[in-house]
From TrEMBL:
Its EC number is 1.1.1.42. It comes from Thalassotalea algicola. This is Isocitrate dehydrogenase [NADP]. GO terms for molecular function: isocitrate dehydrogenase (NADP+) activity; metal ion binding. The record marks K257, Y422 as: Critical for catalysis. Signal peptide: none annotated. It is an enzyme of class 1 (oxidoreductase). SUPFAM superfamilies: Isocitrate/Isopropylmalate dehydrogenase-like. It catalyses: D-threo-isocitrate + NADP(+) = 2-oxoglutarate + CO2 + NADPH.
Amino acid sequence: MSKDTSKIIYTITDEAPALATQSLLPIIKAYTASSGIDVETRDISLAGRVIANFPKYLSEEQRIGDALAELGDLAKTPEANIIKLPNISASIPQLQATIKELQAQGYNLPDYPEEPQNEAEESIKLTYAKVLGSAVNPVLREGNSDRRAPGSVKQYAKNNPHSMGAWSKDSKSHVANMSEGDFYGSEKSMTVDGATDMRIEFVDATGNVSVLKERVALEDKEVIDASVMSKKSVVEFFEQEIEKAKEEDVLFSLHMKATMMKVSDPIIFGHCVKVYYKTVFEKHAVVFDQLGVDANNGIGDVYAKIGRLPSEKQAEIEADLQAVYETRPPMAMVDSDRGITNLHVPSDIIIDASMPAALRASGQMWGPDGKQKDTKFTIPDRNYAGVFQAVVDYCRENGAFNPTTMGTVPNVGLMAKKAEEYGSHDKTFTAQSDGIIRSVNAATGEVLLSHDVCEGDIFRMCQTKDAPIQDWVKLAVTRSRLSNTPAIFWLDENRAHDAEIIKKVNQYLPEHDTTGLDLSILAPTEACKKTLVRCGNGEDTISVTGNVLRDYNTDLFPILELGTSAKMLSIVPLMNGGGLFETGAGGSAPKHVQQFEKENHLRWDSLGEFLALAASLEHLANFANNPKAQVLADTLDAATAKFLQENKSPSRKVNELDNRGSHFYLSMYWAEALASQDKDAELAQAFGPVAQALTKQEEKIVAELNDAQGVSMDIGGYYFPEQEAAAKAMRPSETLNTILATLL
Ligand SMILES: NC(=O)C1=CN([C@@H]2O[C@H](COP(=O)(O)OP(=O)(O)OC[C@H]3O[C@@H](n4cnc5c(N)ncnc54)[C@H](OP(=O)(O)O)[C@@H]3O)[C@@H](O)[C@H]2O)C=CC1
Ligand SMILES: O=C(O)CCC(=O)C(=O)O
Ligand SMILES: [Mg+2]
């Protein structure tokens, strides 16, 4: 057994998961040390990525290597075994806050140049662009996605159901989407015949041709598609829906994915901001221009920038903003206590988390008065909006789902090689004037795809490689077989891209033994309706989806079924044989950090980490032929099951068991399972005394962990906390620390 092959990389990320790591990782290291397993860390946090990208500005001691690039390379090798925690996918305001914090800590980083004035600033902006938005996941995800709630987790939810807001048959909540001029309506798609290079060019109204992208390498048999969102149509759509929301007496809310769709979605978000606050943007156009206000960053950008104006002018603009609320429909709020609306910051209204949260809460959101109210969920593009409307319709008719009886909906998602929309950023452009955007075969000059565009339209091109599609079809068959569960491919024959994928599904399915399996293809809305009915009847259904619905469904169903997507097993079997084990399916829970800072209670549930670690150890056992790793995996699974049975998940309330206490219980159950197994005598012997000590000191340890709470916490930073202070804060039980130290 070579050391190199028994290596697990544990990622350091941001916010709540990074705090949880300070407590959990020492336990993991202690428990795996005697089994020849190296657990190494790599910092892929937002702050870490910023630092790694600007070595020239920093001192020798401040510099760190580009861990993300390193892990991206590792993910393409068979030995990859990476545990990936959720990380911040930064919006511009978040990036700016990170830079500010690092500067205050003595990092001489350049400011983010919103409007670069020269080449040097252009280059700084380009470097910062590398860390913006969803910059981590696409680099590591060299495989497709397998996300599900393991049996023990589903059972736990049935035994301990989370609250579900009741639905009224009179609910006025609904999804609003465009009926023309969107990506769905304009999509064109084709399958490439023979590898070649392509370029994307713009032809203006007078026939002048300019190149938007010099070279896109196309593989044989890959699917390419392009589509356009019309600026005129989307602006009109927002105008109408905002008006209608007022007539319908519902909150107005917008749901986008400005982080993963980092080029197109902030622009659409910006249009909405400019329409809702139209009077202010019109009246103060000149001042906003001088201040460099960017609506794509949200109305929060106005508030941030008017601070530079004389107080009188500032007050005038603030009053004008306030007056907007008198005439416009009430806005859905991210945080009504702090007056943060859904149009403040684009990263606050991430569709995958925000829609299910509302669907769980009676189909309502919170208004400016802090009260729940029926809502217009605005999801402009038609590609996926119907899925959420299907849930609204189902719940209005049948009432809220019952977590004690509902079925489960695992997902098999097409994700590898930056599949579909989530890989489109470098091929997304805003039309500078009216004309044509076309994709041309560089070798032959043949026009592959062509779209008429008007000034301001968003053009977007996507690629989906053939090998990932084959792998995805195989994964769907495998999961359906292993779990004996029907699987539905959510594909719409009337959508250009999906029609190409359907051809491939029909081509590749016969290559597998599908006898006795229930596999079907349905358009997303229909697939969702059928899945919901089955779910309501307690039946399970695998959703086999493209990349976007992978993202949406793996928050939607877990949030309804388990209360949070943090409890999901999320595996990415890498195409070259390695394993990427993501923890949960959700994000970095900024609200949890706010509570931690206020009262030293961290309600983050690390169940996703426990599940990922067990899967990672199991993978290691096979890859490195390390039987001890298998024992660790099996005993960790047993410990996790007991953890759930005994209900040791973190509470939401201060001075009760939190994230740290939950880690203690996991370590106690894990030590007990290791001590009592008979597959590896060394491990049994090593963990006997630990299990005993932990059991004996249970009361004392829990008291030490809970009594530490109830005070405010300062760990020297939000995006880049002081490591020592964070470690100290997250490990307040000397008794536990001393017992763990005996293993090292
Ligand atoms: N894989 C990844 O790297 C992902 C990263 N993100 C990033 O995370 C950030 C926040 O995204 P957001 O959309 O707010 O979604 P989050 O998933 O972070 O948060 C939504 C809510 O889910 C609940 N929740 C999430 N994780 C846990 C957990 N482990 N234990 C208990 N509850 C949990 C919390 O609810 P409550 O407050 O009720 O406790 C939380 O407020 C963004 O920067 C986003 O880009 C988002 C998704 C995936
Ligand atoms: O990469 C991101 O920004 C978020 C990822 C995500 O939401 C998911 O994969 O479910
Ligand atoms: Mg998601």
